[in-house]
Specification:
Helix content: 40-55%
Distance between the termini: 60 Å
Keywords: Metal-binding, Zinc
Strand order of the largest sheet: 2-1-3-4-5
CATH superfamily of the largest domain: Carbonic anhydrase
GO molecular function, one term: carbonate dehydratase activity
InterPro entries: Carbonic_anhydrase, Carbonic_anhydrase_sf
Number of strands: 5
Structural class: alpha/beta
Catalytic activity: hydrogencarbonate + H(+) = CO2 + H2O
Number of domains: 2
Strand content: 15-25%
Protein name: carbonic anhydrase
Radius of gyration: 19 Å
């Protein structure tokens, strides 16, 4: 198996030596006070920030497969809470995208791929028998909009999230960068305030 490690380290040595990092110097606090939860899809690495007019230092970006919050007390939710409480983020954007790989995940096939790549079937059976439903855990989603709205709801209802935090839900076209708004966190907060 070939690795890109040597190439990366060689480039990095030159990058540091010639101070190519200088245009990117910023603080750990997001200038625009935003945290984005988005997908780890390679098409979004540069496209998403450019499509939102974000530069280095403007936002915190948390990535997961499918831009999902799969557990209210998992690492993704913890990262969002850290961004809000410790890193001065005031707004949360959950941004999924069309043509997401998570929408087509077949858990049975993924388990087959694990075995092909050397994970012992006995280990998989132990995980299953220990109470982990691997099929459910590895399952993707059918509709990206529904998935984004589910993550937004988990964040909004989280007992540790400040109720005044706007949580927006959007879906991006990974070809053009076009954003479609599913739910406006500010409008949601306003509607909650009028109901009280």
């Amino acid at each position: 198996m070939t690795s890109s490690l040597d190439e990366i380290l060689s480039f990095n040595e030159s990058f540091v030596k010639f101070k190519q990092y200088e245009p990117y110097i910023t603080s750990k606090f997001p200038d625009k006070k935003i945290v984005i939860l988005t997908c780890m899809d390679a098409r979004l690495v540069e496209l998403l920030p450019k499509a939102m007019n974000m530069r280095n230092g403007d936002v915190k970006i948390v990535k997961s497969a499918g831009a999902q919050v799969s557990h209210p007390f998992g690492a993704i939710m913890r990262s969002l809470l850290v961004a809000v409480y410790e890193l001065q983020a005031d707004e949360i954007y959950v941004i999924g995208h069309h043509d997401c790989g998570m929408s087509a995940i077949d858990p049975e096939k993924m388990i087959e791929h694990m075995i092909e790549r050397g994970v012992n079937e006995d280990i998989i059976n132990i995980v299953k028998y220990s109470g982990v439903d691997l099929i459910d855990w590895l399952h993707g989603f059918g509709d990206v909009s529904t998935s984004v709205l589910k993550s937004v709801e988990i964040i909004r209802k989280h007992p540790l999230m400040p109720k005044s935090t706007p949580v927006h839900g959007l879906v991006m076209d990974p070809s053009t960068g076009k954003l479609d708004l599913l739910t406006d966190g500010n409008a949601f907060l306003s509607s909650q305030n009028t109901e009280e």
